[in-house]
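Kindly inspect this today.
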Amino acid sequence: MILLSRSYAGYLAGTIVQLPKSEEASLVAQGFGTVSAGPVTAGTVTTSKTMGRAGIAAAGTQVIVNNTGFTDESKFQAYLSNAAADATAVAITRIVPAAGSVTFVLNAASTGIVAVDWMQLPSQQGLLPPNG
């Protein structure tokens, strides 16, 4: 994880993000950020990426990821990726896409920081339904 000192790929300066290790190393070398052991930034995340990790703070129930490329028909896959299990927040129960954002909702308020790994799935536009 790195703490960005400048905006990058839609992430604002001051955001803690987890990117592929080679990308993080390159950003640190270029002065875009510093290595961080801290949790991912919780609350609302803005990015131009189609995959990433977002955090939900203790007592939180959801996180919103903003991206101008998302639509209300975008499809996502997401899962909780904490090293230690949270006692109450054990599943993502809803993924709510909208124009410009997606919201990931937990089954219950978390007892600690919860990390959500997410990915936008490729568009199915133009594919015909299977024959019955």
In short: The mean pLDDT is 87. The first helix runs from residue 21 to 29.
